[in-house]
Write a structure and sequence with these properties.
Layout: E1 2-7, E2 12-17, E3 34-36, E4 43-45, E5 50-56, E6 62-65, H1 67-88
Antiparallel strand pairs: 1-2, 1-5, 3-4, 5-6
The structure holds zinc ion.
């Protein structure tokens, strides 16, 4: 399955391959549904996830990622990007 991942440096989406059996979701009616984090492949319940800043659908909806990735790698890249954006201006 190919998702889209935002590249802050290039300012464009890059194709992001994940295994077909990962249950990645942007939305679930059931907050207890077990979904897969598209960053790390860990399973967690939908209600414990966060909307990704980076991994999106064709239409720009963010997939649900695990807490660890959201506050870890995504937050780091986001802050680095924000820091850079500030020095440019
Ligand atoms: Zn994760």
């Amino acid at each position: 399955m190919t998702l889209k991942k935002w590249n802050y440096v290039k300012k464009e989406y890059e194709p992001y391959e994940i295994p077909n059996d990962w249950n990645v979701k942007t939305y679930s009616e059931d907050t207890d549904e077990v979904v897969t984090c598209p960053h790390c492949g860990r399973n967690f319940t939908f209600g414990d996830g966060y909307t990704s800043h980076e991994i999106h659908t064709e239409h720009g909806f963010g997939y649900t990622v695990c807490e660890k990735c959201y506050f870890g790698q995504e937050h780091e890249r986001y802050m680095r990007y924000k820091g850079k954006a500030r020095t440019i201006r």
